[in-house]
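Continued from yesterday's entry.
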Amino acid sequence: CTPPACPCSMRARITSSKSSSSQITYKDQAANSVEVTIDSKISSSVDVRDFGALGDSINDDTVAFVAAMSAATAGRYSVYVPSPSQGASSFYKITNEISIPDNVSVFGTGYGSYVKQVTLKKNLFRCGNNTSVRNLRLEMPANVSVGEDLVNQNAVYANGKTNVEVSGNVI
């Protein structure tokens, strides 16, 4: 496959004759991106797109989100959910509950970071202790009655957990 048409091509360019990750810089190809060292890039957050999330409203992004959470757990990183590149109405399609491990934060860019649970009876995020969910647009299926029982699901579920921050979200 050949960039830029190749879907597996990198979103950033890394070039250097230096040998240490503290000397090599990274700059995302997005407008207004800031150049940082590789060390600082990998020590702060993981991006759901690096694990295969497309945010095209069609393909299931659940596995990519779960993989990003697992990677974040190993280094106590944050998980970044950027705005999907397909446009303002595009979303990350989730079909199962995503567990946010202890000491992991999930954050986005605001209204554009659109995550949608499409399966009834499933929470979107289930928080661990010392977690946060910030600056995301979260959508759930409408609550429906099944017989006489109301089917409830939560965008962010944190029952019994401590030190959970939910802020700046549109639900």
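--- second protein ---
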Amino acid sequence: HKILRSPKATESACDAFLLRWCGRWDRREDQREHYKTGYVESRVAKFFYPLFPDAKAKDFFFPVMFEHDWVSSVVAACGVWEPGLTLLVGLALSPLNNASSSRLFVDAGAHMGWYSLFAAKVAQVPNVISFEPHPKTAHKNLQGIARNGVEHKILLSSFALSNASSGFLSI
């Protein structure tokens, strides 16, 4: 939360957008409830419905970890993580973009599964492979998969995709 109060936060276009859209979430009372339940409901399905008219896109419950986790804080306050990238993923998976054959989505470095859940619930991709090697976030990712009832769509692997400390992975 302190990052939003720093002078550097106003320099970032993404942070400035989130501040305008969501407000100062460190002052919002409803945010604290999410940490008690462990989940926050996304608020993206209505926005993406025009891209997936036949899919009956549904919002999903995103697992939140603890108050000092940046991803959890943003999703709890705004109902979305990385709005620009989420939009690009939605456009790429949309049947209106000739992507009607999107049968597989791979989420490398999935963290707690925002894009995996988005692909399975909103874009209705039938097969999602999610990679998250960190035990705590992989566990929260698995809880999110179970809470959303998409065990049949998302395969979570707790293995890293490479043993290299830096560089690129070619798939």
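Strands lie at 39-41, 61-63, 104-108, 127-131, 154-157. Confidence is low (pLDDT under 50) at residues 1-11. Will compare against the first tomorrow.
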